[in-house]
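Today's session is about reading a structure prediction critically. Students often jump straight to the picture, but the first step is always the sequence itself: look for stretches that repeat, for charged clusters, for runs of hydrophobic residues. Only then move on to the predicted structure, which in these notes is written as discrete structure tokens rather than atom positions. Here is the chain we will use throughout the hour.
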Amino acid sequence: MHAMQYELTLPADYDTGIIRSRVSRIGHLLDDWDGLGLKAYLLRERGVHGSPVNQYAPFYLWNTVQGMNRFLWAGAFQGLVDDFGRPAVRQWTGLAYEEGGAAGSPAAVAVRRRQPVPAGVGLSAVMEDAAREAGRLAAEDGAVLAAAAVDPHHWDLVHFSLWEHDAPKADGDVFRVLHVSAPGRDRLPRGRQW
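Below is the predicted structure for this chain, in token form.
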């Protein structure tokens, strides 16, 4: 599993209806994308769930690097670049993935928490803790799924979870889920990834 996200921070007075309309118009285009586990089309709005910004920030879990590369380099991503400019694309290596008790429910919100991997600690213990945290989040009431991944270049962890209700039991940035494309979600490897 490979995680990926880019963020488009929008002006404070930006009409987020433009993003909602865009997703309703083109979100389905990845509903059968080969190599994609899932893409959550995410939106934060200033003042909602404590967000200081308006931000469009899709989050991806890929089954294959080839599928991700085809998305980035074969034209699909170019439409976003043409409309908004080229964002930095963050990538993380998967540590763990778990389906939640509400796995069959549509997701209302997502929570993303990034944290640095502390210096001077045993990496094995940190990664085990991150994998356990994915399992803990998935076991919470209302959890659709939870994942953990690490960027060994910048040494940061990302915890990502989807929730069926507006009261997630996770800490981090809360996003409204506008659409989920999940052609390969059933093929995302469960549990610890090593």
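Discussion point for the tutorial: The helical segments are 17-26, 65-73, 78-84, 123-139.
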